[in-house]
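Final report, results section. Input specification for complex C-07:
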Amino acid sequence: MTLNSQSSTKVNVCEAISQLQILLQERLSTAAVIRDHHAQDESFHPPSAPDAVAFPKSIEEVSEIVKICAKYAMPVIPFGTGTALEGGVNAINGGLSIDMCQMNNITRVSAEDMDCSVQAGVTRRELNEYLRDTGLFFPVDPGANASIGGMVATRASGTNAVRYGTMREAVLALIVVTSDGNIVKTSTRARKSAAGYDLTRLFVGSEGTLGVICEVTLKLHAIPECIASAVCAFDSLEGAVNCVINTIQMGVPIARIELLDEAAIKTINDHSDLGYAHTPHLFLEFHGTDASAKEQANTVQELAAELGGSDFQWALKTEDRNRLWRARHDFAYAALAQRPGSKILSTDVCVPISRLTQCILQTKADIATTGLNMPIIGHVGDGNFHVALSVFPEDKQEMQLVDDFNHRLVNRALEMEGTCTGEHGIGVGKKTYLVQELPAAVEIMKLVKSALDPNNIMNPGKVL
Amino acid sequence: MTLNSQSSTKVNVCEAISQLQILLQERLSTAAVIRDHHAQDESFHPPSAPDAVAFPKSIEEVSEIVKICAKYAMPVIPFGTGTALEGGVNAINGGLSIDMCQMNNITRVSAEDMDCSVQAGVTRRELNEYLRDTGLFFPVDPGANASIGGMVATRASGTNAVRYGTMREAVLALIVVTSDGNIVKTSTRARKSAAGYDLTRLFVGSEGTLGVICEVTLKLHAIPECIASAVCAFDSLEGAVNCVINTIQMGVPIARIELLDEAAIKTINDHSDLGYAHTPHLFLEFHGTDASAKEQANTVQELAAELGGSDFQWALKTEDRNRLWRARHDFAYAALAQRPGSKILSTDVCVPISRLTQCILQTKADIATTGLNMPIIGHVGDGNFHVALSVFPEDKQEMQLVDDFNHRLVNRALEMEGTCTGEHGIGVGKKTYLVQELPAAVEIMKLVKSALDPNNIMNPGKVL
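Structure output:
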């Protein structure tokens, strides 16, 4: 079975677009500038523009759109904010990009149940700004101000996942439009359920290949009484990583524990003017009551001190904390700023925590052999780290070096019982690695894909 | 499409059994006593014996068994400990029961990664006894000493889920045998992953209808420094439930918070000789460092006192704690003991926590109209509660009363955006309620089922 065969033709596409124009009027665009804006995410993967872009305002409209696309076998590519890193929104077979930005209503917040429902186009910052007065927050934080729908689609996680989990844990229920235009609610708002197959989790991480995510019901969390961020410099990379491992193994419920090696520190120093020492660092955050946050911090400070870590440099005020994490989140943009016109290429392996030191040290040694500047940053509490580069895709020689390096890194992670992607997804970039990682599972995934999208119109050519 | 059509015939079954006998020899049984033992779980659903029972010792043997069954269109029914409550193991179309009890090896424990891999037949008590010296434990606790494979299949949860999550959160990876006999590993050991569709979660809760769960990789947790259990008596049911809601809304990371109404207290008093007052109670447990457990307990004690709760009666020693929770877990057996020869019928709704008081009080009033003794017990921190009865299935009049009551209860929960089953699963008992709860989703579930099990040999007639 091949999942890439498309029966759409130019004639079909023209017909589909004219029907979509009747439905959406000025909210259907074929302008080159709009199509180009939807041709790629933030990564190095080559852009590929859709034939048209739709801006629906309701689930019912998405349903009508997909029905038209299904009739004409026109590919459907859901689009959030375009901040992903594996080419998932690139319209590699043409088709219709469905930009969810006008579906940005927060439809319900229940402070009592600590949950909310939002349309897919709401961004995580919009949601947290809206929630501020409720005493609740939505913790999943991939750095970029991604849309909630996009975060569902890629099973996003980020800095807070070590304590609060990923989108896998954050989503209670979804409303999706499937490949035939049907509107499907996957679950109720109950906190737990044994009611049939877990379709919610099936769509979380499906990268637009099984349906269009339109509405998301999310778990929220109480804003902790105490939020305390700290920075800790280490003598060695090994000491910093071992501190992370010990912290996790002690069961400290730390909220964030992020590694930046000396190259990463240099990158953010240059960009954000922070003046950190050029040594490996951990950026930390503790959540809890005043007493429990203090207890956690004392435990980690003791562990750090034994492993060559400095006294914590605290960021307790909101503006100081925001400055610290903004610097961390802007890492990718800092790397791009070093090489104007470049694109992001980020590796994304995740390994069992017992293998993390070995994996990072071997990778560091491997970086040295390439002669390239490749900073390491990572959500190390989960065993996930990135080697993030700014590249010029047209520089074939450099791209080959990086590609070979990434190949070795993925193989290293797989040998350590890890995964090729902790949070960025498969997109177009990791399809062969997925087969290498889970060969028999991929055959089951193909069966699921064919069952739910028999004509392969949903984001074709991605994941499988 | 009907999922119940079976093309197996007596001739096919005889052929299949003779081939299975060659493969398994004395580990394939057609003895009536063995078949009868595999005809039902602990519930009131009518028994239905399989044609034969297999006792495999390895994943490869399960694969060979399923290949033979596939060849002869013989239904395959995975069997753990038979402690479920919705008839999931009953061989309603005959076929082969695969009893996993001889696949009971704990194949790997990594204290450093806080995970382990076990064969599906390992029970949760066996696992925790094995883990005791490692400082780790496996928290999911449905009461019964279920097999891990069975707990995966039903997406089990229980008393600890409010803090540690359900099997949905506990499972890192699975090895399953699919309907064609293929052996499929669903994920790696990485703590998080964005590598394709979440097949792990698809199989968790699939109740044997998509494949045979053979090996399970589980997250483990550090045994807390302090484990403190307490009992709190309340003046009113409303006060007890509101105390739960306030505790959850305050974000207290309580490990267990179980409601028993006065009828439930009377049942366990009679059985376990505990001498509690005949009023609603909460059974509580706090996990943490000494300081944080104390802080949590103080918070909940204050909330309870404001809502008519007594001073906590503490169970701090291991044997006292075990006695307390054994009494709670033995509730179902206590109910059966009141009516010798009876069977368990347990409702299982789960609602958003803001609706819990209303749902329980309306249900309590409804119970009064039936004239039957129906205790309420519940994992109320998740919004999940059971009305648990001992029934005589042949008493048609009583069964009709109970069935009507359950029907009203499920409708009440669905109107409150809840689910018909928080943890027991669909089995044969809740198929129509599943359609009522998630009509469009059921159609997607059927597509998945047909794709993965086109000949409908995997536990046919269950879930869908």
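The longest helix of chain B spans residues 396-415. Chain B has three domains: 10-101+447-452, 103-222, 224-429. This concludes the modelling results for the funded period.
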